[in-house]
Amino acid sequence: MINFNQLVKNTKKDMTGLQKVSIDLLGDASTQMLNIAIKGYAYELGYNFEICEADFDQIDLQIFNSHSDLYDHPSDFVIIAETQQKLLKKFYDQSLEERPYFADKQLNRIKDIFNQLDSLKSPKAIIYFNFQEEDDGMFGNFANKTEFSFLYQVRKLNFLLTQFAVEHTAFQIMDYKLIHQRIGDEKAFSPQSYINNSMTLSLDVLPYASKYCVDIIAAQLGVFKKCLILDLDNTMWGGVIGDDGIENIQIGNLGIGKAFTALQKWAKELKERGIILAICSKNYEEVAKNVFENHPEMVLKLEDVSVFVANWDNKADNIKYIQNVLNIGFDSMVFLDDNKFERELVKQNIPQITVPDLPEDPAEYVNYLKHLNLFETATFVQNDTQRTKQYQEESERKKDEVKYSSQDDFLKDLQMKADVSEFNEFNLPRIAQLIQRSNQFNLRTIRYSEEELRKLKTSDNHVCFSVSLSDKYGDYGLVSILIVEIKDDSYFIDTWVMSCRVLNRGLENFVINYLENLVKEDERASKIVGEYLPTKKNILVKELYESLGFVEVNMVWELSADKFETKKTFISETDKVK
Asked: Which sign does the torsion angle of CA 396, 397, 402, 404 carry?
C-alpha cells in the first residue's frame, strides 16, 4: 500500500489533462489529512479530484441549510466521514430509556441527510463512512446481549446502513469498519492526535481510507476490474506440472497445498460474481489442461475459464491475445504470477494492467489479495454469473469466424435475433450496470443510477429501450441501451451504449433502424439528433453518426426523417407473443 508521504507528493504533481471530478467532503472530526490523501490517491488512478472541504464538524449545518456553502456549487460526489468517537458521545448523551432506540434514531438522521442531498444537490453518489465496532468496556461480553450497550447499537447501526444502501443505489458505504479491523486499533487511531488535533484517522490508516473512497468513485465512473488472468505453476498449484507430474503438484487440504486451494476458491468466487477468469501459462496446453480435467482436488475447472492460453510465447503477447478475445481494456485486467521476472515483463509491456507483487510465501497470497480491494464494483446482478459462458461462446465464434470467406457470410450464418424491451423493473438493474460499465461504445458517457433510470422510464418526454441479442452459439444477454429525449421536433439521443461483446455484429444498424421506425410513427418528431462527447476510451464511436448517414450541424449530428434509409443488418427482431 502506498504511504501517506507519497500521497502528499502526488498532490503537488501536475494534474493537467487528468479527468476532473468534483467532491464535497464533510466530517465530524478533522478531515484535512483525509482531503490530501484522497486527492493523492486519485492521482494514482489518473483523476484530478477538486475537493471542497466543509468546516470542521459542520455536517448538519451544511446539509440542512439550503443556503449553505455546500449548495453554492455542483459536485459529482459527497463524502461524509462521521466517527465512532462522536457517535459514542451522542450515545452517552442519551437517557437509559432512549439507548435501545439509538441506532434507529441515527439511521433516521442519515436517511434525512441522504434525502436532502439527493433532492437539492443530486450527486452521483453519497459515500458514507460506517463505524468501527469498538466496545466501550461497560458490559464486557454481555454487551452482545443487551440493547443498552454501545457495542450492540453500533453493530445494529452498521447493519441498518447496509440495508438502506441496498434500497438506494446512490448511497454507498465506505467500509471503515473493515479497514479498522484489518490494520488494528493501535495503528488506525491515535488518542493523542484525537485529543490534540481532533484527528481520528492516523497516518497509517489514511492511505487505506483514501483508496476505498477513490475505488468507490472510480467504480461509479465506470472504471473497475473485469478480468483475472492467472499463471499456473507455483501460482495456482505448487510445483511445475511439466517436471513434477499431475500426481506430485501441491494442492488440496494438506500442507502448503491448502494455500493454493484457497487461492483457487477465491478465484472461483470471483468468477461466480461475474469476473472473467483467464489462464496465461508457459506450458504445453495439453499438459496444463489435464490438471483441470483430471486432478481430483482442483477447485477450478475448464468451464470456469473464459480464455485458456498455455504455450511458450512471451506472456505479454499472450495477454494481448486474451485482451483481443475478450475485447476489454487492459486497465480492467489483473494478472497474477509468482515469478517476479514475468510480472516485470508484463508491467513494462502493458503498463495499464494491474500486476500485484505476490508475497514469496503462497500462504500469504489470499490475505494479501483481499487487502488490495482489486475488484470494487458499482453493481451486481444475477446475470453476471453467466459472463464466463458468454465469453466462452465468443471464443468459439472467433475460432469459427476465420473459416468464412467474408464478414457478411459469417454474420448471416450467426442467425442473430434481437429482443427489444422497454425499461422495466426486471431489466433495470442490468441496464444501470451496462451504463456504468460501458466505455468504448458510449456516445456521451452519462452515468445514470437505477433511481434516475426509474424516473426516465416513466417520463412522457423520453423513449427508453434495451436490446438483448442471441445467435446460434448462445445468448449474449442485454447488450445495448438507448435513452432518447423528445424535445422540439427531434429525438435527441441522450444515451446510447453497447457492450463490447457485440461489436462488429451490425447491432448499431439494427438499433438505428428501430429508432427511425419510432420517429416515423411519432408526430412530435421529424429528425434524430445525436451528440458525441469524446473521452479517452470512446474514440471507437467518434465517426459512428457520420457512418449512419447523420450530418454535422452546430456541434451535433442530425438525421432528417426524409433522409431515413434502412441500414444493412443481419439481425432480425424476435417475434413478440401477442
From this structure: positive
Q: What is the pTM of this model?
A: 0.81
Grid cell listed for 435: 451504463
- E-strand spans in 450-510? 462-471, 474-487, 490-498
Q: Packing angle between helix 150-167 and helix 102-120, nearest 10 degrees?
A: 30
All three cell numbers of 290, joined, read 489435464
Which domains does the chain carry?
A: 4-220 (3.40.50.1110), 227-372 (3.40.50.1000), 395-573 (3.40.630.30)
- Of 232, 108, 219, 120, the C-alpha closest to 172 is 219
Structure letter (DSSP) for residue 443: S
Compute how many other C-beta atoms are within 10 angstroms of the C-beta atom of residue 199: 21
Q: What is the pLDDT of residues 38-64, one digit of tens each?
A: 999 999 999 999 999 999 899 999 999
Crossing angle for the helix pair 450-457 and 428-437, nearest 10 degrees? 120
Residue 468 backbone dihedrals phi, psi, to 5 degrees: -105, 150
429-468 residue pLDDT tens: 899 889 988 889 999 999 888 888 999 999 999 999 999 9
Residue 383's pLDDT band, with cuts at 50, 70 and 90, is low
User: What does each C-alpha distance from 248 to 238, 295, 296 come to in angstroms?
Assistant: 9, 11, 13
The Cα–Cα gap between 237 and 255 comes to 12
**Phi/psi at 380 (5° precision):** -150, 130
Q: Within 13 A of 330's CA, how many CA atoms are on the CB side?
A: 16
d(CA 416, CA 475): 10
Mean pLDDT of 462-480: 94
Q: How far apart are CA 313 and CA 311, in angstroms?
A: 6
**Using DSSP, how many helices (H) and how many strands (E) does the chain show?**
22, 18
**Nearest C-alpha neighbor of 231 from the set 341, 327, 328, 326:** 341
Cα separation of 226 and 495, whole Å? 23
pLDDT tens digits, 392-440: 887 788 788 889 989 999 999 999 999 999 999 889 989 988 998 888 9
What confidence score (pLDDT) does residue 384 get?
59
